Each structure stands twice: as C-alpha cells, then as structure tokens.
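stage 2 :: seqdesign
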C-alpha cells in the first residue's frame, strides 16, 4: 500500500480513538487525573522500552545523525520565523514566546513513534531512525531551548530552572534508554539471547501498547473550549509547525542525500503538532500559558488534515 494512503488511514484511526476517549471522558469513564497517570506510564515505561528495543539491535550510521541535524536545524528555522512574524504583527513579548514555543518542536514522542509504527509496519529500521530523530533532534531542544525562550519573553527570570530541566531530562528513563540502547548496539546481541530473552519479550509487549496509550492521553488532554481571539496565531503556528518545518526538513534531507525511507521518516516526525510540554514552560515563566495551551490543542486538531496533505506532498 502506498505510504500516503497509510498516513491518511493512520490519522483517521488516531482520530477515531481520540474521539472515543473524549466521549468516554464526558460520560465519566475517566477522571481528571488519569491523563497525568497515563502520561507517566508512557514516558517512564512504554517509551523507554520502545527506544531501547529499537536502538539495542541496530547499528547507528552517520546518515542517521545527519537526519538528526536536519531535524534540529528545521526546528531552529521555525523558531526564528515565528519570532520574526511575531515582531512584524506587533505581538507583546509573552505572546511572541508562546508562538515560538508552539511553532518549532512537535510531539514526536507522543505521536511520532505511533505514526511511524503504523506507516512503516514491521520496519525496525524506520522506527530506529524515528527514535534518534525524535530524542536527539526534538527532545533535547524542547528541554533546553524552550525554557530559555519562556524565561526571556516571560516575566520570570528563574535561571537555575534551565539547568534543572536539562538534568531532569538526562536522568529521565527516556534518555537513559537512548544511552543504554546506543551502548548495547555494538554488542550485536540476539533477541533470543539466554537470560535476556524474557526481558526483550516484555519490551515488545510494552511496544504493542504504544499507539493506544498515545491516543488515550491525547483524548484525556483535549479541552473542547477553544479560546477565542487567537485565529491569526493559530494559522501562523500551524503553517510554521506543519508546513514550513517539514518543507525545510525535506530540503535538508535532499541536501544530505538521505535515503528515501529516512527522508519520509524525517518529514513525518517534523510534521507532528506542537509538543505538549511547551505550555508547561510558558505557564511557569508567565509567557502567556493560556495562549500556548490553546495553540497546542488546535494544532493537534489541525494535524488530522495537515499531516496527510503535507506528507503526500513532501514525503
């Protein structure tokens, strides 16, 4: 089946599951705290298992790091473009910061892995590329650059938090899984290696729940009360995040002569809607957290349309 059709089917499948969760939430099936619990489950257990499983059994090539560089560069271009547009249209500093945070780095871990898993079924190489691009090209910038932007454009200047956020990321199960996977990869272990096989099988079981848990979290996070008077920012943020950024990533993929599959994975990861961590930093540093949260929410909705369209054009 053509990749473009698989992307459309994936987005539709995601939408149906998310809408089901929204319906169940309205019926009282879930509580307000369930989103946080499932987010912790995803970030502390499921994602680390997936990351380690994909990295541990595949050698890392130089072209994969070129893909990481392309992703990071595309994100920085998006940041700069959001700042320029914010200045041109006369936004106040907190709104400029909110626009930058929600226009540069996407939900690669929350949505990206699941999307790659569906679009490239039974393709460990594609998932390995996605893990590296996501964790090194998106994850690290979110935990380092976004707090700096929120501090600079917000009203609070609590500088030590930048170091705290970086340390927390370096101690997180996700980053530890990346390091362990990279260290184990040169050992060329077999998945049926004695004593370790049960652990590897447990990781595969956790990997199987990735897509459903991601949809569950999104459904629990969605707030259907859309904040008014941000239509212009919605259009700007969505165009930068899910049009300009994948276009730049695709250009860099061609420049670096990446393979067609790496090109497609890179574009797909760069197409993800705004990262849900952005509003956390914006709220902490009084960088218009309300606007940031609304932009993230609407970007997730718009991704249902923009992902298949843009992937069909650029992928």
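stage 2 :: out
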């Amino acid at each position: 089946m053509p990749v473009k059709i698989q992307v459309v089917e994936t987005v539709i499948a995601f939408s149906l599951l998310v809408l089901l969760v929204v319906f169940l939430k309205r019926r009282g099936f879930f509580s307000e705290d369930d989103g946080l619990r499932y987010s912790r489950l995803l970030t502390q257990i499921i994602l680390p298992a997936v990351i380690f499983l994909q990295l541990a059994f595949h050698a890392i090539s130089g072209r994969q790091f070129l893909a990481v560089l392309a992703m990071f560069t595309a994100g920085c271009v998006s940041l700069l473009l959001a700042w320029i547009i914010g200045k041109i249209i006369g936004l106040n500093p907190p709104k400029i910061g909110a626009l930058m945070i929600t226009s540069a780095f996407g939900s690669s871990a929350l949505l990206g892995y699941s999307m790659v898993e569906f679009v490239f079924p039974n393709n460990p190489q594609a998932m390995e590329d996605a893990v590296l691009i996501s964790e090194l090209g998106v994850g690290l910038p979110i935990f380092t650059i976004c707090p700096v932007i929120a501090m600079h454009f917000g009203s609070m200047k609590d500088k030590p938090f930048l170091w705290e956020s970086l340390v927390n990321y370096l101690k997180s199960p996700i980053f530890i899984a990346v390091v362990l996977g990279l260290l184990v990869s040169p050992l060329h272990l077999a998945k049926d290696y004695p004593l370790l096989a049960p652990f590897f099988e447990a990781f595969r079981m956790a990997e199987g729940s990735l897509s459903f848990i991601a949809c569950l979290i999104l459904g629990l996070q969605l707030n259907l009360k859309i904040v008014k008077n941000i239509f212009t920012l919605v259009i700007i943020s969505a165009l930068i995040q899910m049009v300009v950024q994948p276009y730049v990533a695709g250009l860099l993929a061609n420049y670096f002569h990446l393979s067609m599959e790496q090109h497609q994975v890179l574009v797909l990861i760069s197409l993800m809607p705004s990262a849900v961590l952005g509003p956390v930093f914006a709220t902490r540093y009084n960088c218009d957290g309300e606007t940031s949260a609304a932009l993230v929410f609407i970007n997730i909705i718009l991704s249902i349309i923009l992902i298949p369209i843009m992937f069909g054009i650029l992928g």
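stage 3 :: structure notes
- The first helix runs from residue 3 to 26.
- The chain has one domain: 3-314.
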